[in-house]
């Protein structure tokens, strides 16, 4: 057993426990959705630093910090400047779900992008798992990340900045501060947030827009909770339902309340993960919001824990394109092995 002090109370917990596990054993409520009461600890890998607590006087992620003899933990102490893991500062030639399709020319970089670590989902077929589950390196403050991002933008010769992941929205104070600094340093740049939308509440969206976000891409992974759970690796049906509902509501709220923000929606496709029928139902629901919302269908390839997946062919994706057009969507883009199919049914670039 290991003796630690939590909020002034001396207790013993099993050796080898993480701080998160110790807090759970002591009865602290650990939450995975920020609207729930308790300590928000969404990624479990130490990437997002949303769970950072004062541990022996320093901010450390509770989900990965191991208990040590005599450790002192404060669950309500001020954290100071937020931090999180960020990597992959680079130019991006194809853009993302929230990048207007007409910008893709094949002639150079469209955006400067960075990838935040940590995700609240654990998709077996995660297409970006090297960043999503990374906790190696030094966490960056918003100031440090903004400086690197601004320099990358200058090197790429673009006026678009994309923040991807992982899931960039998990550490709200960090993201809002990062975007605000990017706006101050890049007054004419478009700032694009790429997200799964699962914790994007209305007040959070308002804060991001106020900080300077101009574009957003939301990956709507399913319409049915059962599909969403299989797609994301979630086992808690209640949590999965809440995440899925939050993401769909975020799309509707952005469309209705922030029409100045460019909104793109991502829909996954692989016949082993989601049916054509469900994709049609998703399209019909999007049409009911606005048939002109840009919808990008992503051809999920074999990745991470699903090397058995077979990437959909170009012709399968072209068929999906026309199915969604027949549902009433007017701005459909399909990612394929040959490039992106634009709204007119032809390859872009």
Low-confidence stretches: none
Shape designation: globular
**Distance from first to last alpha carbon:** 62 Å
**Structural domain tally:** 2
* Strand coverage percent: 15-25%
Counting DSSP H or I runs of 4 or more residues, the number of helices is 9
CATH class of the largest domain: Alpha Beta
CATH topology category name of the largest domain: TIM Barrel
What would you report as the Rg, rounded to the nearest angstrom?
Answer: 21 Å
Identify the strand order in the major beta sheet.
Answer: 8-9-10-11-12-13-14-15-16
The overall average pLDDT, rounded, is 96
Biggest sheet descriptor: 9 strands, mixed
For the secondary structure, the number of strands is 16
Helicity level: 25-40%
The secondary-structure element order is EEHEEEEEEEHHEHEHEHHEHEHEE
GO molecular function: 4 iron, 4 sulfur cluster binding; lyase activity; metal ion binding
Organism: hydrocarbon metagenome
Domain 2Fe-2S ferredoxin-type: 1-79
Keywords: 4Fe-4S, Iron, Iron-sulfur, Lyase, Metal-binding, Pyruvate, S-adenosyl-L-methionine
Describe it for me?
It is a single chain. With 349 residues, the protein is α/β, with parallel strands linked by helices. It has two domains: 2-74, Beta-grasp domain (Ubiquitin-like (UB roll)), CATH 3.10.20; 86-341, Aldolase class I (TIM Barrel, Alpha-Beta Barrel), CATH 3.20.20.70. 30% of the residues lie in helices and 22% in strands. It has nine helices and 16 strands. It has a nine-stranded mixed beta sheet with strand order 8-9-10-11-12-13-14-15-16, covered by helices on one side. Helix 4 packs parallel to helix 5 and helix 6 (225-232) packs across helix 7. The longest helix is centred in the last third of the chain and has 21 residues, at 237-257. The protein is globular. The protein starts with a strand and ends in an 8-residue tail after the last strand.
